[in-house]
Specification:
Elements lengths: L3 H25 L17 E10 L11 E12 L6 E4 L11 E4 L4 H34 L1
Amino acid sequence: MNFEALNISASALNAQRIKMDTVASNIANINTTRGPDGEVGVYRRKDVVFSSVYNDTPGNGGDPGFISSGVKVLEIAEDTKTPLKKLYNPSHPDANDEGYVELPNVNIVNEMVSMITASRAYEANVTAINATKSMISSAMKI
């Protein structure tokens, strides 16, 4: 019996869990202006980069080609394209000579949209796993 559909959905569950963890980290660091060691270093938003996983098994009818066998996380990359926010607050300990503090490039609205999207994708894959289990169970009864 082939359980490839379960493996594909399981890989997607893992990928979406990593995305939700990354979004949670972004939200938690929305005001972080120092690194873990205490040195000044503004947190930069992280984003998850996914990639399809293919195997080289011929498709239906023996056609050569690649069949998707899941998804994997290629990397968790820093967002260097979105500029950091600047806030005028001369009393802040991390303010520069002009009184501006650099804040992370995290936008709470965008992060919440990403979290909802990842959550819905996770739910969809749980539904796919349950449907696959149901089909396997029905096939075993035949």
